[in-house]
User: What shape does this take?
Amino acid sequence: MPAEGVREPRGHVLVAVDGSQASDNAVDWAADEAVLRGSTLEVLHAWEWNFYEGGDWYDGDPDGEAAETVRTAAERARHRRPGLTVTTTVEPGVPEDVLAKASERAGLLVLGSRGRGGFAGLLLGSVSRAVAAAGRGPVLVVRSGIEGSGQPPYDADYFRIATRPVVVGVSDESCLPAVEAAFAEASGRKQSLRAVHAWSFPDLAAHGATPAGAGATAEAVRICRRNGEIVLAETLNAVRDRYKDVDVHEEVVNRRHAQAMVEASDGASLVVIATRHRTGFADRHLGPVTHALLHHAHAPVLLVPVA
Assistant: This one.
């Protein structure tokens, strides 16, 4: 039986590394997550040889550099969490494709928000963005290098800080897999759960509407709020009986969903959101809420794929 407060393993934790500072931060989080779940940690480095940049990145020896990258990351994880079982994998191929496929065999894939390539001013790297859009299992994206990124404190009781809730966005009942994941995360961390349902309705009175129009607007707002309360309560009720240890706070707000979730992330230990594989003109892409959170959230973001 696992120790009190530690969940049964749901598959191992896998972290993608490339030797960057963001990658180091992801390793720290992944080591903590593996201990929390009672699982092992796999450190994975995926690389694609490009003649115009290979010399700069791998010094002419991609196999040796890749092996050193995963070895260093594994040592970091073991130093942070002594006793943690850590394995390493080096796999050649397009990183986005390798990581998206790897997410199928892991209970959790952890990514840093930025890699070693690209432009430093970008908040979300191309690999992280692609995997977030195409990942086939839960993906945890950890932002680093900017103020308020939610970098974890280095103490063993991090996951037991009850004042930092897990936040989950609930737009409708299709978000149930994300809600289930959020309850499990809150229970494992011994934290409360803040469930947010956002809807947006214009303030017509502020734009010069007549008294009659303002009254109609108020009634419409009341109906929208009530409908939101029903959707939120019904979705949570489908899960909450299995997690009686989790203190749940329900929040229905008249605000754009993306704005509401970014604001709710401030002070959270984790933000959980459902993601759908969207196909656009060029390729799979992120929805507006996911996009906003991955660029602006104040805490790590757990993406849970839904149909």
The mean pLDDT is 78. The chain has two domains: 13-142, 162-273+282-299.
